[in-house]
Amino acid sequence: MANYYNEQIKFEMESSPLMQRIAELKERDYADKDAYADAPQDYADAIDSYHKVLDIVGDITANIIAPNTEAVDAEGPHCENGRVRYAAKTYENVQAMVQAGLNGVTMPRRYNGLNMPVTVYTAANEMVSAADAGFENIWSLQDCIETLYCFGNEEQRQKYIPRVCAGETMSMDLTEPDAGSDLQSVMLKATYDEENQCWRLNGSKRFITNGDSDIHLVLARSEAGTRDGRGLSMFIYDKRDGGVDVRRIENKLGIHGSPTCELVYKNAKCELCGDRKMGLIKYVMSLMNGARLGIAAQGVGISQAAYDEAVAYARDRKQFGKAIIDFPAVAEMISNIKAKLDAGRALLYQTARYVDIYKALEDIARDRKLTPEERQEMKKYQKLADAFTPVAKGMNSEYANQNAYDCIQVHGGSGFMLEYACQRLYRDARITSIYEGTTQLQTVAAIRYITNGFYAGVLAEMEQQTVPAEYESIMARIKTMTEAFNACTAKVREAENQEVLDICARHLYDMTGSIIMSHLLLQNASKSKDLFEQSLHIYLNHAETEVEKHAKWINNMTPELLENYKQK
Amino acid sequence: MKIVVLAKQVPDTRNVGPDAMTPEGTVNRSALPAIFNPEDLNALEQALRLKDKNPGTTVTIITMGPGRAAEVIREAMYRGADGGYLLTDRAFAGADTLATSYALSTAIKHVCPDVDLIIGGRQAIDGDTAQVGPQVAEKLGLNQITYTEEILDCKDGKIVVKRHIDGGVETVESALPCVLTVNGSAAPCRPRNVRRVLQFKRALAPMELAPGTTYADLPYAEEYEKKPYLKLGQLTCADVNADLQQCGLAGSPTKVKAVENIVFKAKESKVLTGSDEDINGLIQELLASHTIG
Questions:
Q1: How many whole angstroms separate alpha carbon A210 and alpha carbon A139?
Q2: What does pTM read for this prediction?
Q3: Which of B190, B194, B227 sits opposite A114 (nearest CB)?
Q4: Which mean pLDDT values do the consecutive 10-residue runs of chain A (568 residues) have?
Q5: Maximum separation of any 2 CA atoms in chain B, in Å
Q6: Domain B2-246 belongs to what architecture?
Q7: ipTM, 2 decimals?
């Protein structure tokens, strides 16, 4: 039986020394082992459970979701009487995931969750995306529950989390017609209904993924008269209470299975989540970071699918008397897809592990005071997670697009026809570098860690890793790239010109991503030559070219040249 | 309700590689992965749907085979079955469908004398006989409904079943208890449930333990004491009071005379050109053999 849980993902679940710490923190030293029949006894048992969970996801994605993808893409969802009806096969996918118990994956067991680390959830997410990137949206919005868990009160947790664990869906209602990247402009009105002692929502939202979900997290303006982010609060809307209708669903380029809704709120009853005025400043930022890691996983999933499709076609297709995979021009494209896939995946899971450690410590801090060492540890990993998340999201979504493009190219003329899966991957990939913050906004989020030297410090630490003698020359090449990166950073900083910094940011960002991924692939290949050596060589060749290109670009940049970029 | 599901571990004959057969013409079991017989999974799904609708229903798996066949019991528990029994004994070895049906019927009488419903797949992909279900019904003196597509209703001691027949379906009713065999075209079995997998992943039948060891010698040994469900049921010939003369080879009237390797090849071929003469000749020939016309 086909199974999407491949050796590379398995490797990421157990190869890092951080995994032991993650399991120990997440399981609170295995305190659940006597209270819950599904709780692990120790680290080895926990890792075994992670593999078993992911094996089931790999089975369902390969044998139920993937075979449905084409039909879902062709049918798409429907809007009927203010409600969404999914494509017929989407319901089969939803049912399979619910029957398998794959909801509320990261939630604590006391709310019926599986208490799995973010790293394991991310792997599941990647596989769902590889099978159907549109369905990934619907399934992975369960991640919103993390925000409700972190900032909701205990009554709200007990009310909503078990429902999500049982398979109810979620959505995050943020975007409005005039508030896309700029969420400070959100105008949906929240007013307090004194008579009924509850909040009410009035207005509309747009581009809401899975907007007819069971439980919504809604960003709305609770402070009348304000115009910026400080007047926004987060609310929970329960579909059982009614009051929100779907006006229409968008006709999109890709991810057809995922309904993108325009919502109308008519005096909809809702509950305040957390504190007033903290909606955007604190809660949406947390929601976004989780969502961005999710999109990074979605990108990796699409890249995996692009690789699989490209290889299968190139082995099968014969021209000039041989399979086209044997022509260097085709082999190069496929190798590049694989190298970017392996590199991007290494970055994805490194980021997920950082998120896991700080989130688990943050959770422990809800029950007891952390020791000074633990506090320090939490801060360290939170900073790493904050710095790595925008790079993982931006780079993997760009790679997904590049890989889907190359996948069509490998197919030649057939790839332009709608019969092959590569065209869907190409369409589905396109949104990943746009939603949950465009690549340009990921750059904005990452740039401060570049200019303040944080990444330089991370890279210097990565250079201290010991590698097998045969890889020392590779380490030397990565060091050379890092020197070029540091020189470029210094040049941009010394220019003391915000516009120069802004226009160079994307180039510095790409350099950062390329070098970090080179290090991560080197570390992976040092542990498993079989799985990663080929990609290491190819990726390094790619990264060096990229770094050199961007260095040249940055070195050419002057305030005078910049003037020419301004559109008059 | 008490439901027994009969399931078999079979070599996966759907994924046959070049080494699937031994030179002697028998199935090379080591070259084929052992799987849950596909139609038995359809049968399990029908049982689990009844359990969903009727809380308090128990679904018990009975499978006959060597130690590794206990995997079938675990797989069924991962999907929702309550437990199961591995029917295993050297005396059962070499059983044909008659001896297998006898052994299974004695096991059902032993573990679930007040069974309401026995469900199995229509047939196993290694033998394709479709005999075991009906023979179990005969041995137990129960009604049987074969080729089940769907259970439409089950209450007040009656079951209504949609069954597949040539050219369509028919709906039949039977008193309980009875035996159903289920088609591969019935609803596919639900996936494994994560929480159940984590709960039952260590479940083992005694036959699966290394010779001379006990549950106390296993990793996490204390778990087997705390959670008795991790020790899967196991039954021998003596446990079910089976008559040795009706078991295994002794109880199998089927005797294999010889096994032949059949290689299909084209007998003879004829080359035709596109000429009118050749086409006319072919038409005449096809008319004569009543292939066309």
A1: 10
A2: 0.93
A3: B194
A4: 96 96 97 95 98 98 98 98 98 98 97 98 98 98 95 98 98 92 93 96 97 98 94 98 97 97 98 96 89 97 98 97 97 98 98 97 96 98 97 98 98 96 98 96 96 97 96 98 98 95 98 98 98 98 98 97 93
A5: 85
A6: 3-Layer(aba) Sandwich (3.40)
A7: 0.93
